[in-house]
């Protein structure tokens, strides 16, 4: 399974906690991340990640291109609903291409837990 993991700054602690909670299942996946999210995950969980650019510098678009290519099976994108982002068009493009390609997308921890349970058949 190829899983994309992305979190805005206010949600990065939650992302690290989420990955830690599912480390066994996610450890068996290919993980693709945006830049800063991936650094936090790698440093704090020890899992290997394929880091793209930081979101504001095009990382969302790079992951969106992978989704368009059929190279991603699921996306966890912990979005900050309370803070405006300068790269909002890139975020919208990433969310849109998930719908175009019918790729499972979780934008909060509750749905991310369901996504991992559904995709990775965690015991
Ligand atoms: O901005 C982001 C997603 O839109 C995330 O990017 P970083 O992981 O580099 O902070």
Secondary-structure blueprint of this entry?
Elements: E1 2-7, H1 12-21, H2 23-27, E2 30-33, H3 35-45, E3 50-51, H4 59-68, E4 74-78, H5 88-101, E5 105-106, H6 109-120
Parallel strand pairs: 1-2, 1-4, 2-3, 4-5
Helix pairs in contact: 1-3, 4-5
The protein binds 1,3-dihydroxyacetonephosphate.
Structural account:
This protein is an alpha/beta fold and 123 residues long. It has a single domain (2-120), classed as 3-Layer(aba) Sandwich (Rossmann fold), CATH 3.40.50. The protein has six helices and five strands; from the N terminus they run βααβαβαβαβα. The protein has helices at residues 12-21, 23-27, 35-45, 59-68, 88-101, 109-120; strands at residues 2-7, 30-33, 50-51, 74-78, 105-106. A five-stranded parallel beta sheet has the order 3-2-1-4-5, with helices on both faces. α5 links the parallel β4 and β5. The longest helix has 14 residues, at 88-101. It starts with a strand and ends with a helix. 1,3-dihydroxyacetonephosphate is lined by residues 6, 8, 34-37, 54-56, 59-60, 91. Substrate binds at residues 8, 12, 34-37, 54-55, 87. Its EC number is 4.2.3.3.
Strand arrangement, major sheet: 3-2-1-4-5
Tell me the CATH architecture. 3-Layer(aba) Sandwich
Q: How many separate domains make up the residues?
A: 1
Q: In the CATH scheme, what's the topology name? A: Rossmann fold
Q: Count up the helices.
A: 6
CATH class: Alpha Beta
